[in-house]
Amino acid sequence: xxxxxxxxxxxxxxxxxxxxxxxxxxxxxxxxxxxxxxxxxxxxxxxxxxxxxxxxxxxxxxxxxxxxxxxxxxxxxxxxxxxxxxxxxxxxxxxxxxxxxxxxxxxxxxxxxxxxxxxxxxxxxxxxxxxxxxxxxxxxxxxxxxxxxxxxxxxxxxxxxxxxxxxxxxxxxxxxxxxxxxxxxxxxxxxxxxxxxxxxxxxxxxxxxxxxxxxxxxxxxxxxxxxxxxxxxxxxxxxxxxxxxxxxxxxxxxxxxxxxxxxxxxxxxxxxxxxxxxxxxxxxxxxxxxxxxxxxxxxxxxxxxxx
Length: 307
Prior knowledge:
Number of helices: 9
CATH topology of the domain at 89-260: MetI-like fold
Largest sheet: 3 strands, antiparallel
Number of strands: 3
Strand content: under 5%
Distance between the termini: 52 Å
CATH superfamily of the domain at 89-260: MetI-like
Helix content: over 70%
Shape: flat
Order of helices and strands: HHHHEEEHHHHH
Structural class: mainly alpha
CATH class of the domain at 89-260: Mainly Alpha
Strand order of the largest sheet: 1-2-3
């Protein structure tokens, strides 16, 4: 009986392997046929293929940013400028969203009804309004600021207008597009992170906090030393997902003219007509960024957990 069962299991595994090989072969064949047909269609329409366009002059301008750029620079440099703008936006917004989310999540559990109620209203409101609409609202609000000739000057060397925020002494300039996207991404993502924090803290048995309070620990010490460390395994995984979502959502920057990776990709397609290559390259870059974010966050969590 055992020999028959073992022989049957072997046949089942071989059959499964053959099915997998057959499906993989069919998918590869279909991909090759699609690629060949696409290449033929492009040749018929006189559209170039490949990535040689990256070495050509872009012929368009980008707003001033960390990467110097002019119309005579290559498409590759334009893509690099967009990538840096995306990375800068995502990095700063992730830090801000995490900070706001932790504070708001703790506020949801406050014994003061006004604080808990305000946090609940914020979370429920922000989570249920489309992110694109929030970005457009922030952009519209910033456009209502005074123009440059009558800019607000709350501090010496600081100017605030519909052209953005300028700190002359520090050499810092923030455009309205950057500010609108940063505010929308941070506030929107923080609402989801706050729920992760609230759920994580509530997952810790209530007796832990009661025992710590009985030992004389303050509420802050109970939160910092007892609740949050035990809640981290529940909080971290979905929060990493929110960081990845924030990075992907930054592609909505094109709606307000912020020159991120997606905006530069769209302009490149309009200039070259090579949509397949440009979109494929953008997808690969976004994939690499998000995988890197996930890997770094998980590694940092494992190191902190081990310590």
